[in-house]
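Researcher: I'd like a structural prediction for the single chain below. Treat it as a standalone chain; there are no partners to consider.
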Amino acid sequence: MNEPRSMPSSNTYDVTTWPHGDPHGDIGAVINSIIADVKARQSDVDRDGGGKPGAVIHIPPGDYRLRTQVRIDLSFLRIQGAGHGFTSSSIRFNTPHEEWPELHELWPGGSRIINDLPAPIPGAEADGAAFLVARAGSPRISSVEFADFCIDGLHFESDGTGAHPENTYRNGKTGVFVADANDSFRVTGMGFVYLEHALTVYNADALSIHDNFIAECGTCIELRGWGQASKITDNLIGAGPWGRSVYAEHHGGLLITANNVFPRGASSVHLHGVTRSSVTNNRLHSFYPGMVVLSGGSSENLVGSNHFLRDREPWTPFLNVDNGLDDTYGLLVVSGDDNSVIGNHFSEIVSTDDIRPPGASPVIIRIAKGTENYVATNHIVATDVASAPSDSCFEAQVDALLTTRGSRRLEIVAVLVDDDASHTVVLDSGTDDEVVMDRHRNAFRATPAVAMAPGAGKVVRT
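Model: Treating it as a single chain, here is the predicted structure.
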């Protein structure tokens, strides 16, 4: 018996077979042409209970220059490739050129879109985006999906500081910029590399950013304006020294879970004016203080079961780079009310010679402002470890991560409650001499102190 043939859908497109334009020369013009075709064919608002099902645009493996910005103003569009294609451009650009012929590959791969737009004028950030999603009116634009391809900014540029141009994280380029209120967007399996801003979304509702590789970008994920009920889950993320790996403002019900956040970003997670949201079960690694910041009255949030690691930058090209914060700032800083900081593990692994200001005790958890915050059962490991710098990014970081031997205990402030905060409850998150707070205005139960192991005494400062 003959099986019926599966016929291709008129709403499924392949950029390499579309008859208009050259996808390798300018994939932006090709995708815009496809979107125009979808809109021309799907013009009825209501046809038998449907009318505008949207479309899928396939991007096969290959390199595609984007010289025309893609403008998306229709719902139910999925743009998908065949692999996120990430490889470290930072390692390549910091490898001597005479060694490049020995490298197995030089550039990101998979389904790779190269953002070749001109740098936008200051204040026109959206103009540098490879993909601009913008549609006002009702209903909100919905169900636009980006899946399984790479957006590459190709090069960074000089910023006037004297730094190597490829290490500035500046080029004015963005991967995806969503300008208007939206519903049920998905960004899945994507690769973003060498972009000043990887993903910027305004006014999101039920946004899913899941299982992406977003690294070596100035700032990685930014949720701006306002939003609700969104999630950032299972991503590999790493921003530059001036940028933020995850930033959200004025959001409610945001879930940030199971992400592996690499060091070198100025912050791992920064929430501003965010309420009733969760930062849970993440692995967070930073070379600087200010790893997780709750600012702008962020309230009723849960920060729980995360692993915080703060150590020293081991890679030679970035040894003298930091985010400008002293160690007294805190690894986790809270300014807001009724937040819970529960069951986190903190590892502060630094040399006393690297602490700023010299002679200070690094602060781990800082309640800077607010009332009724709750800090409980957090475990802190603080050790004095002198790490050796290396020209090999991968080997240096792995060696630093695995080094636990031969270290001495480091004197820290486990919890600092500032005078602008009150009615804070701190339980089992530091010994009696590791917690600094007004004990008449706040409640405290110390972690029981135990005898030190031989040779593991605290560092004494003079």
